[in-house]
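Chapter review: from sequence to fold.
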Amino acid sequence: MEIRTALHPVTIGSQRFPAGSYVVTLRQPYAAFAKTLLEPQHYPELRLYAGGPPLPPYDVSANTLPLLMGVTALSARDSLRIGLSAPVEPPAAVPGYPGFTGPSPDAPRVGLYRSYVNSTDKGAIDEGWTRWVFDTWKVPYASVVDSVVRAGKLRDRFDVIVLPDQDPHDLLDGLPRQYPAPYAGWARTA
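The token string follows.
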């Protein structure tokens, strides 16, 4: 996808953008792809039954890139009559964000819950991808398994515990009791 920068300030609607702002034109081979990524996607109003609760989306990802990335993207209804740069490469994200370059007293103590239950099609997959992101970006974390939760005093060890996307019943009940004690349910006691 071709990305250019505005050589001059530009106003779209009531918003003014400075020179150097990114511009994605739709006169390019990947116009349809750019439009799909940058336009807001609206989830249809679907109900489980008339007057019932909303039908949840099938996925946890965001298809609206500006919403996902926390940036503003506006569509210009008419052609912009401003100078644009040649296509540019956006700045690359570099793993190892300076805030996580090493042990620091100010760094949050992060725990990542690792469930033994894989009863859904997501199960351990979401935890694995979260681990991959943390490892790629060099975010220090510790895996939190059921025995760590049972031991208690989590506040002494962690400032935040990340719970990957998982069915709440799997979190509460864990594996059935026929599994060995270290792996069976942890939140509810018999």
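Two observations follow directly from the output. The chain has a mean pLDDT of 80. Strands lie at 4-5, 10-12, 15-17, 22-23, 110-113, 141-144, 160-162.
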